[in-house]
Design goal:
Layout lengths: L8 H26 L4 E9 L7 E9 L2 E6 L9 E4 L4 E4 L1 E6 L4 E2 L9 E2 L26 H6 L2 E6 L6 E9 L5 H4 E11 L10 H18 L3 H5 L10 H6 L1 H4 L5 E5 L2 H14 L3 E5 L7 H7 L3 E3 L18 H7 L4 E3 L15 H10 L4 H6 L3 H6 L17 E4 L10 E6 L2 E2 L5 H10 L9
Helix pairs in contact: 4-8
């Protein structure tokens, strides 16, 4: 208390009171932090773990933000919060593995003061060192809408560029980017598109990618010479070559947007040449080379909402694509390919994509896996999210019925064991315009 001497009388009184409060509050706060989190028991529903068969009348036990038990006749600890899911469907939270969620709203600064942080300038279309998720806005008005439709995790990826940068898997809850990230980076993102690198032809594109990967491979051995500027001009800045090292050592896949069947075979050949892991995104004509993709054990991310070609690259587009790939033994993840901004505002539409995939030949169980565990495994977080298993994060949704049916609603959404609540901007606008102004009357 000697530090209080010399202060004015009033200041000493305030400081003494503050010290007294701190001495009492400290242990109380410590006890509060040490108290075990609540236990939640979701009981009586039809549980779809994805990692195993469905469980009628099952229980999902949540403790400390994780799933502690799944099954029938699970002992429920005293004092647990019980959620009666009788007649409901219980699944893992859904995952959309192709979004720019939190990186853009209203298109950009030219529209209503919006923003667009989806891409980096890069050098000749190469921005491998760009971490897209670092610009994520946790307060994005699009995020609550996705949660409300049972989307609990998304891949936040860059858009544009030959090598656009790195993506992260994030949960859709948390006040900060750090609190939301499940893991990052989980993938390098690119596009098999000559225009993305200001190139003129596919042959030039393949040569550019080959030069880039060759330079990146030699970067570590020649670092000293590169740092002292004693080498020939490189195909990309040092930071981008450094960022490509996990791709070359196979600890991170290159997720590349590619549609034409011949382009897909070119990507597979490049992957074999450099012994890298790739994932195909979009892949409109992948069904035509399904056997080759399956043999290479390459995961594919496709949609099932649209079958209308948008260019000569997608002339073979068909809604049976996902089912045909799965039948050939390919690991399939469903993403959005329908209209209406499926990468941001309507990222939630992946459950309709799944429903369409079932309508066009995919089994229901495979479709559920394609928007839960399959994307989690493809991006190295299957040990954390994507299924209802003990030890996994408690990302759980209680549905009013079949989640692939249009009228089904997500009645309760848990992310890391926390019940998500609150109205979205869409809810607020619906409520606002549901009631007409008093002086507005129709004839």
């Amino acid at each position: 208390m000697r530090a209080l001497h010399g202060l004015p009388s009033r200041a000493r009184q305030v400081a003494t009171l503050a010290a007294a409060v701190a001495s009492v509050a400290g242990p109380v706060a410590a006890r509060a932090q040490a108290a075990p989190p609540p236990v939640i028991a979701i009981t009586g529903g039809t549980v779809y773990p994805v990692s195993g068969p469905k469980i009628e009348g099952g229980t999902v036990l949540i403790q400390g933000g994780n799933i502690s038990a799944v099954g029938r006749n699970i002992p429920i600890p005293a004092g647990a919060e019980r959620v009666d899911a009788t007649g409901k469907w219980v699944t893992p939270g859904l995952i959309n593995a192709a979004t720019n969620l939190g990186l853009t709203e209203a298109g950009g600064p030219q529209f209503s003061g919006g923003y667009n942080d989806t891409r980096a300038t890069g050098t000749k279309g190469i921005a491998a060192a760009f971490n897209a998720w670092e610009g994520l806005n946790p307060a994005s008005t699009f995020i609550p809408m996705q949660r409300g439709d049972g989307i609990t995790s998304v891949l936040v990826a860059p858009a544009g560029g030959l090598i656009g940068g790195r993506a992260a898997m994030v949960d859709l809850a948390g006040a900060t980017v750090g609190a939301m990230v499940v893991r990052g980076p989980v993938a390098m993102v690119g596009a098999f598109d000559p225009t993305a690198g200001n190139l003129q032809s596919r042959g030039e594109l393949i040569g550019t990618l080959r030069d880039l990967l060759t330079d990146a491979r030699s970067f570590v051995a020649r670092r000293a010479a590169i740092e002292s500027n004693q080498t020939r001009p490189l195909s990309a800045p040092k930071a981008d070559l450094e960022a490509l090292q996990p791709v070359l050592n196979r600890t991170m896949p290159l997720a590349i947007a590619v549609d034409r069947a011949s382009d897909i075979t070119a990507v597979l050949a490049l992957a074999r040449q450099f012994n890298i892991r790739v994932a195909l995104v979009g892949a409109a004509e992948a069904w035509q080379v399904a056997a080759e993709i399956a043999a290479a054990r390459v995961p594919v991310m496709v949609g099932a909402m649209n079958n209308i070609p948008g260019s000569f690259n997608t002339l073979g587009m068909r809604q049976e694509n996902a089912a045909m790939l799965k039948a050939a033994g390919v690991q399939v993840t469903l993403i959005g390919n329908g209209p209406g901004d499926g990468a941001t505002f309507n990222a939630r539409n992946i459950r309709q994509e799944a429903g369409n995939a079932v309508a066009y030949g995919m089994t229901w169980d495979d479709a559920l896996r394609a928007i839960t565990l399959a994307p989690a495994e493809a991006f190295g977080v299957g040990d954390r999210i994507g299924s209802l298993q003990p030890g996994r994060a408690a990302n759980v949704v209680v549905w009013s019925g079949d989640p692939f049916e249009f009228e089904t609603r997500a009645e309760r959404v848990y992310i890391r064991g926390a019940l998500q609540s609150g109205r979205s901007r869409q809810d607020e606008l619906s409520e606002r315009y549901r009631r007409l102004p008093p002086n507005f009357r129709t004839p």
